[in-house]
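Appendix B, record 7
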Amino acid sequence: MEQIYRIGIDHGYGNIKTAHHIFESGVIERERASELAGMTVEYEGRFYEIGSTHKEYQMDKVWDEDYYILTLAALAKELKGRGLCNASVILAAGLPIKWLGEQGEDFRKYLLRNKEVTFRCNDTRYHVKIEDVEVYAQGFAAVAADLPGYQGFNIVADIGNGTMNVIFIIDGKPDSSRYYTERFGVECCVVEMRSELTNKVHSVVDDCIVKKVLRDGTADIGEKYLKAIGECASDYTGKIMRKLREYGYNEELAKLHFLGGGAMLVKHFAKLDQDKVRFIEDIHANAKGYEYLSNQRRLRNIRRG
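Structure tokens (predicted):
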């Protein structure tokens, strides 16, 4: 029997994550492959430079071809790691939890448009049979394998580049009546900070510097710039915490868990008692979670006969 590989892909606005790889989610079509590009996908006679920028926020991920091309790049990364260039796969993907019901089937069809696809990534030719696509809830997937450990009243906030997904878990079970998707993400913070930073330091601070400070809490830059970025970031994390409190967060009653790229933004700059907050720092957590949920579905199907 032909082996089928289950590959989880987290289609973020800032980065594409698989269980083992991460790269920026930008796609630029080129007339030919460039030697300067770190990764190039050749598909249907066109060349796409991958990862030199990131994807702009859009609510509907099927709006253009970019996420399909990024999916091919992610498949190439995972298959190369397995020493494969021909494979049958089941794609396990995700969407912000609030959008899943409305957009899930369209996203599934978008990724399943070709049951078989041939493309090149850099110097390697790949042929992939896509047996199926499964779409899960972003944020929930990242904690699904550990649900029994979420006893008591828990709030999980998955902060990505474009959105924040919030779910409630009560005694190891998700509360299906309380889940939210908000336009709070790292890129939102960067955009909001641009003019404010200029006013504070009277010069333009490149976004890549800002993102490094948000991610690492520091950078090798002048103290006045570091201080200004920190002040702006603290203001932004204050908005995130106010939104969570609107949803019902009370630090004396609930356990708060942050994950996603924005978890570090909160860890470094939010004013909160960090002894009462857990940070899930594995940036691949959602992609791993999609694979876990896909395997759980496989096991259920086996038990049903």
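Remarks on this record: The chain has a mean pLDDT of 92. The longest strand covers residues 124-137.
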